[in-house]
TrEMBL record:
Claim: Hydrolase is one of the keywords in the record: yes
Organism: Breznakiella homolactica
Name of the featured protein: Alpha/beta hydrolase
InterPro entries found in the cross-reference section: AB_hydrolase_fold (IPR029058)
Keywords, ordered alphabetically: Hydrolase
GO molecular function: hydrolase activity
SUPFAM superfamilies tied to this protein: alpha/beta-Hydrolases
The keyword Hydrolase belongs to this UniProt entry's keyword annotation: yes
Length: 159
């Protein structure tokens, strides 16, 4: 609905998404070319994240399948139906110029997942030393602000 609204009103548009919002954007907009995309701490492989959460919660695939949903001690609910949806709907295409800000200590997206995704889709990656998945400290927020300005300037100058 968002894209349908925008496409008839604007010639160019960009996307900015954070964490899970980046993942859902990757799913929803695979066939759309944005002028630029800014992803902050993106979830780039939901299947991998769910598998990691299953390990953290000591839940097997068979147990999740049998129970359907399982609450975890870290506040998330694992869902067999959602896990199957994710497995059946991987990110297959991404053709937009994408800038990614990643915290060095991100505990949700592993560095190898970031590196694989960014190589496959030619993303420009910035890693904040000692940064986390959630940019929330004054230092991290200042870094985020500088990064956004830099990414926007680079695309406006044609780089």
């Amino acid at each position: 609905m968002v894209y349908a609204y925008l496409k008839d009103r604007y010639k160019k548009f960009s996307l900015c998404a954070c964490s899970l919002g980046a993942y859902f954007s990757l799913l929803a907009y695979q066939d759309i070319a944005f002028e630029r995309c800014l992803f902050i701490s993106p979830i780039l492989n939901m299947e991998r994240l769910i598998k990691n959460m299953m390990v953290w919660a000591n839940v097997s695939e068979n147990e999740l399948k049998k129970k359907g949903t399982i609450g975890t001690s870290f506040g998330e609910t694992l869902s067999w139906d959602y896990y199957q949806y994710v497995r059946e709907n991987p990110i297959r295409k991404w053709d937009s110029k994408t800038f990614i800000l990643y915290g060095e200590r991100d505990n949700l997206t592993e560095r190898q997942v970031l590196d694989s995704f960014s190589k496959k889709y030619s993303c420009d990656v910035t890693v904040m030393e000692n940064g986390e998945h959630y940019f929330h400290t004054p230092e991290q927020l200042a870094y985020l602000d500088r990064w956004i300005k830099s990414a926007v300037c680079r695309t406006e100058k044609g780089r």
